[in-house]
Amino acid sequence: MYRDTPRVVIVGAGIAGITMAVNLKNKLQHDNFVIYEKAGSIGGTWRDNTYPGCGSDVPGHWYSLSTEPNPYWENYYVTQPEIRAYWEEIYQTHNLASRTVFNTRVKLVEWDEENSVHSLTLEDVVSGQIMQTKAEAVIQAVGPFASPIFPQDIPGREKFTGPLWHSFHWRHDVDLKGKVIGVIGNGCSATQFVPIIAAEPTTRIVNFCRSRQWFAVRGNYRYSEWLKWAFARVPFLMSAYRSFIMIRSDLLWNIFLTNSLVSAVFKKILTSYIQQTAPAKLHDEIIPAYPPGCKRLVIDPDYLSALHRPNVDLNWIGIQKIVEDGVILKTGDKVPLDVIIFATGFYLVERDIAFCGIGGLTLKQYFESEGGATGYYGTVFPGFPNMFTIVGPNSTSAHASILFIIETQVSYVLKLIKPIIDGKVKSLEVTQKATACYNTWIQKRMENTIFLSCLSYYRGDSRKGGRNVATFPGMIALYWWIMRKPRWDDFKVVGGEQWFYQRRKVALMKYALVALTVSTIGYSSSLLKRVVGELKERLLSGW
């Protein structure tokens, strides 16, 4: 254990936190870190979401770490129990239990500028005890789907006398047979569990839809035993397969561009799929007017087919309020219900952790001053030294695997945190100028996309923000490219000026060497061209 080295705190033991811990331990050989997890076990969103049919809409071989491939995925798309078991195995394999403190909420992170250290306020969620600790670096690894939303425009939840819950916290103790169930929301979660609970014919479902969704064919299939054997034993086969999935998915980026031929063709394909799969009487109700990709695409888990069932009804009128035994619609009509299930998404920006940077500025205040969540590469923020974020503003993808994004960011954070861990630097802080320049570039690229053509969580917690604060406006290959190494001139360094000067000196020497090489090649080419020209003239003139 390296107790004399700078201490690192990782907030959250979900997939981002575990990935960060594994890399911190293996790539930097740094062991002086702790993971604080407010729950009693690991897994994050794959621990909390246990609703029927829960799974990833990204292929399993790409929804896994590149350093921890799994040749034994049963199907192309994997389920929540499989995903959680995968992360449990990684957690155990890398012996992270000794570095994890469960049932502990990080409430406050304050930067002590004088001592270049973070002061953290912790809460034991079981006993309520408040504790204090310190760390030279803090990594926020709380995912974007950790705080469920109950829409404020639907009041009266407390009045309902029957079972009521959010899909994020599924009530497995409630028997749904013979019940009339109101499902509020028709996004990715609802479309996964509705077909499952609708399979019971005595259950009646009224799905209160809040917006139309684009559906794509799922195309799931089971891997044969011989293929799983080949993935495990044939060199490079599994990595080649994973790369194929990645490249094919990344090429879909063009669907998000305005006036794109690819987008127009894609829209026709999706429209045709919906028309072929859903009941004809619902086509006018469910086919969106906005372009595909403006909201997250639903990879159809047989939801459209379930709409043919006599025990499934869609309601587009809108809910005015919830009452003791059901809901009142905006028309004044009452719909009696036995159970209400919210599937209304999550807060993307809001966190239950307060981060205070230089001068007491909170991260929330910084976002408000910028007109929305803003960051540098979705990873660091000006005014918040030695504080790093995984899956921050404009870092997610609407068409690719979040695991690729997480690995890219973790690799970048390792490069930034290494001089701190090595004791060469006390603190690193990205400049406001660099952050503003980066976000100007981001918003410029956003101008040619379709993300503001509808209301979605891409536009922040209100779903109505003036800009996309969630996704990166480009192929993930581009995101990887710009993050492959830090631009150290974009950072302020404290306590490591000599180290910073040395890095700049080495960088300038490299640039000078490249320039000299290019010049030499250019001069040699010019000289060779002149000699060849003179030789040609002499030959033509017969010497």
Describe the structure.
With 543 residues, the chain is α/β, with parallel strands linked by helices. 34% of the residues lie in helices and 18% in strands. The chain is built from 14 helices and 23 strands. A 5-stranded parallel beta sheet has the order 5-2-1-9-21, with helices on one face. A 5-stranded parallel beta sheet has the order 10-19-11-12-15, covered by helices on one side. A hairpin with a 4-residue loop joins strand 17 (326-329) and strand 18. The longest helix has 44 residues, at 497-540. The N and C termini lie far apart (79 Å). The mean pLDDT is 92.
Order of adjacent strands in the largest pleated sheet = 5-2-1-9-21
Number of strands: 23
* Mass-distribution shape: globular
Structural class: alpha/beta
pLDDT below 50 for ≥5 consecutive residues: which ranges? Answer: none
- Separate helix tally: 14
Q: Strand portion, in percent? A: 15-25%
Output mean pLDDT. Answer: 92
Helix coverage percent of residues? 25-40%
Radius of gyration: 27 Å
How far do the termini sit from each other?
A: 79 Å
How is the biggest beta sheet arranged?
A: 5 strands, parallel
SSE topology:
Blueprint: E1 8-11, H1 15-26, E2 33-36, H2 45-48, E3 55-59, E4 77-79, H3 80-93, E5 100-101, E6 104-112, E7 117-124, E8 130-135, E9 137-140, E10 164-166, E11 180-184, H4 188-198, E12 204-208, E13 215-216, H5 225-233, H6 237-250, H7 261-277, H8 283-286, E14 298-299, H9 303-306, E15 312-315, E16 319-323, E17 326-329, E18 334-336, E19 339-342, E20 354-356, H10 363-369, E21 387-389, H11 402-421, E22 427-430, H12 432-446, H13 476-482, E23 491-494, H14 497-540
Helix pairs in contact: 1-11
